[in-house]
């Protein structure tokens, strides 16, 4: 496909995604501001206090975390500085919140994709949320103990800021949505250029030895690399096809999905939270190291789980035919 055609196709797809985000983000942001001015946020915030306290964050940010888990990163980003003024947050705070968001966001959609590949939705969802909380807790211990990143956050892009009147709020909301469009287009074009030039394939090939450290091998590694860079919709979609054909072992499918849950779409998602003020090393390098180590640990535990328990508790029984095909092919 010629480069101009590919860019045009990607632009149209991005605009379609953007329109979907507008219909979700704008109403929720307006509702959040309304509830905030009515004092409802202060009343609800204590429900999130235990988890937020565990990772050293203001309880108000729990609402943004919940929005992110249900809607996606773009569902949480506009709420952050509406709920908590930017000058009261440190770089460490933004980094810890970003860690929570990067591990578990858009769960209804992404976990449904993972479920279709075979792994159970409940266990993989719990692992993503627990992994995010645990990594955020480790960051909190590190930052609190060393004083690292304790300076006030200075984001390069403030999606929304707290305002005292509705005209100011709607003006800020308009600027946010416009900035969101520019960022989405830039990211989608950049990824398309990487694919067209072949650089993405080179990166994915170089990544295969690293994924083997987490117990991900063969064809499963290729699909996982796709998910790592382009997101669960791409990597998970390929795994669905492979799982149903029996080309990849069910346990490899499960491990791949676990790693993709911990680390996926690392270019786009990382750039978004770094623009909010998060530390790049913690949300990219640290996240990848944690994801590899945690997935390797889970893969190690999985070796002691019998097939009967595996297909009862963590992998859908509806994939039994695919399992039989894989076992037949591997003989």
Polypeptide structure, described:
The protein has about 325 residues and is an all-alpha fold. It has 18 helices and no strands. It has helices spanning about 5-40, 40-45, 50-55, 60-70, 75, 80-85, 90-105, 105-115, 120-145, 165-195, 200-210, 220-230, 230-245, 250-260, 265-275, 280-300, 305-315, 320-330. α8 (about 105-115) runs parallel beside α13 (about 230-245) and α11 crosses α12. The protein is globular and about 60 Å long. Mean pLDDT is about 80; it is low at about 320-330.
Mean pLDDT figure = 82
Number of strands: 0
Sheet bearing the most strands, described?
none
- Helix/strand-derived category reads mainly alpha
Strand content: under 5%
**Whole-Å distance between the termini?**
40 Å
Q: Helix proportion of residues, in percent?
A: over 70%
Question: H/E order of the elements?
Answer: HHHHHHHHHHHHHHHHHH
Low-confidence stretches: 322-331
| Global geometry | globular
**Number of helical segments with 4 or more residues:** 18
**Alpha-carbon Rg, integer:** 20 Å
Topology:
Elements: H1 3-38, H2 40-44, H3 49-54, H4 61-71, H5 73-76, H6 80-83, H7 91-103, H8 107-117, H9 121-146, H10 166-197, H11 199-212, H12 218-230, H13 232-245, H14 250-262, H15 266-275, H16 280-302, H17 307-314, H18 320-330
What would a concise description of this structure say?
This protein has 331 residues and is mostly helical. 77% of the residues lie in helices and 0% in strands.
């Amino acid at each position: 496909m010629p480069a101009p055609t590919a860019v045009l196709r990607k632009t149209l797809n991005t605009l379609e995604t953007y329109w979907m985000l507008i219909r979700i983000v704008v109403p929720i942001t307006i509702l959040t501001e309304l509830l905030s001015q009515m004092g409802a946020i202060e009343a609800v915030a204590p429900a999130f206090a235990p988890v937020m306290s565990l990772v050293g964050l203001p309880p108000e940010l729990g609402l943004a975390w919940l929005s992110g888990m249900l809607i996606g990163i773009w569902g949480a980003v506009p709420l952050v500085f509406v709920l908590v003024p930017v000058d009261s947050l440190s770089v460490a705070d933004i980094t810890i919140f970003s860690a929570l968001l990067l591990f578990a966001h858009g769960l209804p959609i992404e976990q449904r994709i993972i479920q279709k590949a075979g792994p159970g939705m409940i266990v993989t969802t719990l692992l993503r949320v627990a992994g995010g909380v645990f990594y955020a807790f480790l960051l909190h211990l590190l930052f609190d103990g060393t004083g690292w990143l304790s300076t006030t956050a200075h984001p390069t892009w403030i999606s929304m800021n707290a305002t005292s009147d509705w005209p100011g709020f709607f003006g800020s909301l308009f600027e946010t949505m416009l900035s969101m469009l520019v960022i989405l287009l830039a990211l989608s074009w950049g990824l398309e250029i990487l694919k067209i030039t072949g650089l993405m394939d080179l990166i994915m090939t170089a990544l295969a030895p690293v994924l083997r450290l987490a117990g991900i091998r063969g064809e499963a590694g290729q699909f996982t690399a796709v998910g790592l860079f382009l997101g669960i919709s791409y990597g998970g979609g390929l795994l669905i096809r492979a799982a149903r054909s029996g080309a990849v072992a069910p346990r490899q499918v499960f491990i791949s999905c676990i790693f993709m849950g911990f680390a996926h779409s690392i270019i786009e998602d990382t750039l978004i939270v770094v623009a909010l003020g998060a530390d790049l090393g913690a949300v990219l390098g640290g996240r990848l190291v944690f994801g590899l180590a945690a997935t390797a640990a889970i893969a190690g535990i999985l070796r002691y789980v019998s097939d009967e328990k595996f297909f009862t508790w963590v992998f859908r029984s509806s994939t039994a035919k695919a399992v039989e095909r894989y076992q037949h092919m591997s003989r």
